[in-house]
């Protein structure tokens, strides 16, 4: 017996290794003309793992206090060997991950992969998207630069517009009434401990559900897919799909490395809580569409401020979006077509408001 | 037959009692764990330790028609030395979303760069999204020192 077979036999005898591995051999991925959308979730997962690795590396030098934070990031960017590369990959990777997470969500929405029995997979995915946005918001402040300081001041002030618990949330997030070192400490704790723990839990749940239900075939191509000869309908997950997925990961890594090398992430100037806000304060691009919408709402609408109204509208929209699978029960029903339209509208709205923010508002 | 019925009802009564007892115990201990954690998460309210008056600048530090941010307790505040030679002071926290405002010498206005909010030299919100005027402070010059204090009204 070869040493490899020997180890396998040893493992198999103790906890049924071969049985455990058989599900991987039997797992298949449907093959049709929209199959390439299946890679987006995996790419997001890969980028998340990359964030964990680069995040741990940054943790070795970063110090989360108002006096040291900016200097420690500066040290990483200028003194630590390849620190610029690690941090740039972390920053670019975060942005790319949020992009692929959104793309993954919209592909699932367009292909209606959230339908019964996969409602919980969609819900866990929405929680993960929310966590990813929290990662972005909390990580943005950590270098303690001017832009991030004021973006956080504005962002947390918007959270205060939530009815009833808004003020409480503001104090909870800021660790006081202003953005101070207490805020930095909290955001750091959220960013490196609370959110990674939650994200890992929900990620495992998300993957488990995908494993349980298998991969959805979009209703639009189901007939065409059924008409194929059985051996052309699916490919095996291992190794066929995984190897293709690995190629996508390699490509993502290439894009990331290139971006980090030719456009290292900037640092700006150190935040001064008792200095004036600079012109051109803006949030990260993925909050841009909300930021622009809030700017277009008049200062007062009826009895409430424009901000409070905007925050409420976005809150309700996010809730409805999260519950999408529960409205879409009959694939040939009117509701289903209506939802398809709403998905197109949501995507068009986000793209056009983001573009408006960058090309009209900031000019 | 009757006695066994009684037995049973006694048993379920006892079981019910134990369930309530256990449930209440677990709930009470959970609350006693959670309460300190929740209190810990909310920072204690700090009274603004700084006195009601602060030395904002020295005479001659500001050129006519200019402004400067100074620290007033926990918040930034804005001191303006107008072209006509008066000192004015306001909170520098924009009433819209809390950015720090600045003096615009060419427009003789107070400007918030975050969302283009504007205030006049009385602190009144005249343009953009700010919903309320800026709180004005009183300024008095004592020798070489410019002191700012909270107006009695606020």
Summarize the model shown.
The complex is a heterodimer of chains A (363) and B (154). Chain A is mainly α.
Quote the average pLDDT of chain B: 87
**Number of self-contained structural domains of chain A:** 1
Structural class estimated from helices and strands of chain A: mainly alpha
Quickly give the CATH architecture of chain A.
Up-down Bundle
Radius of gyration of chain A: 23 Å
- Assembly type of the chains comes to heterodimer
Largest sheet of chain B: 6 strands, antiparallel
List the helices and strands and how they pair.
The complex is a heterodimer of chains A (363) and B (154).
Chain A (H helix, E strand, L loop, with lengths): L2 H13 L1 H10 L1 E3 L8 H21 L9 H10 L4 H28 L8 H23 L4 H14 L6 H9 L6 H33 L8 H6 L2 H4 E3 H26 L25 H9 L3 E2 L2 E2 H17 L1 H4 L6 H28 L2
Antiparallel strand pairs in A: 1-2, 3-4
Chain B lengths: L1 H40 L11 E6 L7 E7 L2 E7 L5 E5 L10 E3 L4 E4 L4 E3 L5 E3 L8 E7 L2 E6 L4
Antiparallel strand pairs in B: 1-10, 2-3, 3-4, 4-9, 5-6, 6-7, 7-8, 9-10
Task: Give a structural overview.
The complex is a heterodimer of chains A (363) and B (154). Chain A has 363 residues and is mainly α. Chain A has one domain: Cytochrome Bc1 Complex, Chain C (Up-down Bundle). Chain A is built from 16 helices and four strands. Chain A has helices at 3-15, 17-26, 39-59, 69-78, 83-110, 119-141, 146-159, 166-174, 181-213, 222-227, 230-233, 237-262, 288-296, 306-322, 324-327, 334-361, and strands at residues 28-30, 234-236, 300-301, 304-305. In chain A, the strands form two sheets. Chain A has a two-stranded antiparallel ribbon with strand order 1-2. In chain A, α4 crosses α5 (83-110) and α5 (83-110) packs across α12 (237-262). Chain A is globular and about 70 Å long. Chain B has 154 residues and is α+β, with helices and mostly antiparallel strands. Chain B is built from one helix and ten strands. Chain B has one helix spanning 2-41, and strands at residues 53-58, 66-72, 75-81, 87-91, 102-104, 109-112, 117-119, 125-127, 136-142, 145-150. In chain B, a hairpin with a 4-residue loop joins β6 and β7 (117-119). Chain B folds into two domains: 1-45; 53-150, Rieske [2Fe-2S] iron-sulphur domain (Rieske Iron-sulfur Protein), CATH 2.102.10. Chain B is elongated. In chain B, the strands form two sheets. In chain B, strands 1-10-9-4-3-2 form a six-stranded antiparallel β-sheet, with no helix packed on it. Chain B has a four-stranded antiparallel β-sheet with strand order 5-6-7-8, with no helix packed on it. The chains are: A mainly alpha (363), B alpha+beta (154). The A-B interface holds A 150, 153-154, 157-158, 168, 171-172, 175-178, 182, 273-281, 295, 299-300, 305-307 and B 41-43, 46, 69-71, 74-76, 92, 96-102, 112-115, 129-131.
């Amino acid at each position: 017996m070869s040493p490899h077979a020997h180890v396998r036999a040893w493992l198999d005898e103790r906890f049924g290794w071969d049985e455990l591995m058989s599900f991987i051999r039997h797992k298949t991925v449907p093959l049709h003309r929209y199959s390439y959308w299946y890679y987006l979730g995996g790419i997001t997962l890969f980028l998340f793992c990359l964030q964990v690795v680069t995040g741990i590396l940054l943790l070795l030098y970063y110090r989360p206090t108002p006096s040291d934070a900016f200097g420690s990031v500066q040290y990483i960017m200028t003194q630590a060997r390849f620190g610029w590369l690690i941090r740039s990959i972390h920053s670019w990777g975060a942005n790319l991950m949020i992009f692929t997470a959104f793309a993954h969500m919209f592909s699932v929405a367009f292909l209606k992969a959230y339908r019964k029995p996969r409602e919980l997979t969609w819900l866990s995915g929405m929680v993960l998207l929310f966590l990813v946005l929290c990662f972005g918001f909390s990580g943005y402040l950590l270098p303690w630069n001017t832009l991030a300081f004021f973006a956080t001041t504005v962002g947390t002030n918007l959270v205060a517009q939530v009815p009833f618990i808004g003020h409480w949330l503001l104090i909870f997030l800021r660790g006081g009434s202003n953005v101070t070192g207490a805020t930095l400490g909290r955001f750091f704790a959220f960013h490196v401990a609370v959110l990674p723990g939650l994200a890992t839990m929900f990620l495992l749940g998300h993957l488990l559900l995908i494993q349980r239900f298998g991969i959805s075939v979009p209703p639009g191509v189901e007939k065409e897919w059924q008409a194929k000869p059985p051996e052309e309908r699916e490919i095996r997950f291992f190794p066929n799909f995984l190897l293709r997925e690995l190629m996508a990961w390699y490509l993502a890594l290439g894009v990331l490395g290139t971006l980090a090398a030719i456009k290292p992430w900037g640092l700006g100037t150190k935040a001064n809580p008792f200095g004036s806000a600079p012109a051109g304060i803006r949030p990260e691009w993925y909050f841009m569409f909300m930021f622009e919408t809030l700017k277009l709402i008049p200062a007062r609408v009826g009895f409430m401020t424009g901000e409070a109204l905007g925050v409420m509208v976005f809150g309700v929209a996010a809730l409805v979006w999260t519950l999408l699978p529960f409205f879409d029960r009959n694939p040939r029903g009117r509701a289903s077509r209506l939802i398809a339209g709403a998905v197109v509208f949501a995507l068009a709205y986000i793209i056009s408001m983001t573009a408006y923010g960058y090309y009209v508002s900031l000019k | 037959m009757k006695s066994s019925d009684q037995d049973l009802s006694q048993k379920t009564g006892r079981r019910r009692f134990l369930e309530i007892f256990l449930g209440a115990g677990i709930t009470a201990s959970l609350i006693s764990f959670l309460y300190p954690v929740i209190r810990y998460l909310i920072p204690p309210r700090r009274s603004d330790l700084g006195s009601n008056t602060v030395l904002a600048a020295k005479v001659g530090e500001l050129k006519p028609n200019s402004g400067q941010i100074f620290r007033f307790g926990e918040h930034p505040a804005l001191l303006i030395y107008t072209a006509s030679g008066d000192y004015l002071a306001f909170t520098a926290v924009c009433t819209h979303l809390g950015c720090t405002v600045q003096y615009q010498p060419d427009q003789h206005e107070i400007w918030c760069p975050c969302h283009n909010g504007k205030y006049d030299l009385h602190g009144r919100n005249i343009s953009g999204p700010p919903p309320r005027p800026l709180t004005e402070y009183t300024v008095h010059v004592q020798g070489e020192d410019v002191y700012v204090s909270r107006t009695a009204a606020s």
